[in-house]
Amino acid sequence: MNLNLSFEDVQNGKPAVWYIYPQKNYTVSLDSVIVKSGKYSIAIEYIGDSAYFQPVTLILPDNYEGKSITLSGYIKTENVTEGYAGLWMRIDPQIAFDNMQQTGITGTTNWKKYEITLAMNPAKTQQIVFGGLLVGKGKMWLDDLQITIDGKEIKYAKPYEKERLPAEKDKEFDSGSNIVFPPLDNQKINDLELLGRIWGFLKYHHPAVAIGDYNWDYELFRILPEYLKITDNTKRDEFILRWIEKYGEIPECKTCKETPAGALLKPDLSWIDNGNMSQKLKEKLKEIYKNRYQGTHFYIDAVQNVRNPVFTNENPYPNMPYPDAGFRLLTLYRYWNMIQYFYPNKYLTDKNWNTILKEYIPEFVLAGTQLDYELTSLKLIGEVDDSHAFLLNENKIHSLRGDWIAPIQVRFIENKLVVTKCYNPDLRGTTGLKDGDIITYFNGKTIEAIVDSLKEYYPASNEAAKMRDIANYILCSDSETAQISYNSFNQLKQKELTLINRSDLISYMNRKDTGLCYKLLNDDIGYITLKTIKEKDIDNIKTNFKNTKGIIIDIRNYPSAFVPFSLGTYFVSKNTPFVKFTTGNPDNPGEFMFTSPLEILKSEETYPGKLVVLVNEETQSQAEYTAMAFRAGDNTTIVGSQTAGADGNVSEIVFPGGLKTVISGIGVYYPDGRETQRVGIIPDIAVKPTIKGIREGRDEVLEKAIEIINSNK
Asked: In the β-sheet with 650-655, what is the strand arrangement from edge to edge?
């Protein structure tokens, strides 16, 4: 086993077995001059004008037995800024990850040994990936890596031997489903709706499916051709019963429990009782539910401790970017049933989820191009009304938007699309636009018309998050220039705007800000931005701000460190509950129970002054959770506007065609049961930016926070 951990094995000028894909603005090369030992090291260098990150990657050839795996190696750096250099390692799927984000190397340093360690779970591991990483600007060298498992070199580690199940051996439809659909009249759509419900019900309840005896995707393709020929409900139900009987008798379940009376959500089996199907079929489905599978399941699991769902053994079929009609129907069946049984916020969607399956059957079956398929998938994802639920790995949608984008940040303020800053200050003079200018037309279309055409393709928990996301992409084009009309300080103007490549913008937006996260305002008010906070800053914050009359914590961003507990304790004088969750139960799909509330624990000292927390639509997920923790403080006021309404750990879902999405995997509530999903964090005092304030260069939300602290109330 040659892992080439010291980069001495070179093929075609590159280190053998390593995956190296240079990102724009970076180079990756072998260095024969600056080495820790041997002939070569790997050098990663930033050479561009907008920083992002550059990894080098190696995939272990096997999964291994063991409790922990450690990656160590030597790193040397030169002028690393706006980010860090480090090691990284990941165990898939979603088992463990570390990229030294909190302990990364900055500045100029000589060779030094670093290491990271992850807990292993061989039974669930699909692959182990690791390497080196440069985030931001500068240069790093990497050399003499070592992998150990339970303290022993990996060459002595024993590969984990897992017997392949029948579901994993079934390859019959790898190249296509071969399904041809007849015209979709109402009867056929109803039949396909019933099949989709029963297919998903069996997937998560039937013991023969749960233990991995059958590739459930391909079992669908085996029955569909004959099922599609049936035109009589009686024959349809008889066919489904014969299909279920194929998988054997259902053993009695002696450990199945009734859904607790206190469950927030209970399994929805009303479709069985109310469905247009024979009594015999209804009884068979109820028998399966009563004796549903318990234990380790082939298709569903839950993250340890957190308990958000993990959708296991789902093939993304990446080699078919435009899946055939059978696989497109599989996309709908797969996603609809995942939401039906394992989405904690299903009851909060605008549409009744029970109506979605039937509605989308013709849209997926008749999607005539890859673009149609991607757009239909994106619309379906939007039906869960979750700001976490975007579409990854899109291809044609990316092309549809265009590769060019305006170099300015815009936001919807007072229902107008307003320029708030230039992403790259060096380009400000070239745009001819000022902060506070209102864009009214883009390439001949009104902003209102563009928004109306985009809304269904931007999944979001609430309107604030939807408009935030639309603003990020609304000024995209397939050419390097665009015609705009705008209102500049009450003067109507037009101009040709030069755009920048979207990849350059993404690099600029994702650059790492290394500025100090705290400062004094007016000598007696402390200000903290969580955008750049580090754990090591917290003691300094307490020391520097202990005599101030108030502290402002700005969470109009995504926190760079997890501080709800480490910093939250500073603001409570007693142990204070601040959050509770609902989690699903793979042994009873559709059941969601509340956990006990989590508390912010009192520390040795409590800050005596006022705390004001700033939030807006940029406050999402961990940021919202952190705001909840600070809200538990003795003297906290939250100021700003509605947040994104998507809290809690996320769960990944893959679609045929290599598409990916995520959902909020647990329900997040205040201790009294008030929801945060979709609602977000509602400010105690609502303040939104105004066009006038933007034009005057003011931060009106921050001004209100200062006013609150300076008041005697």
From this structure: 391-392, 659-664, 650-655
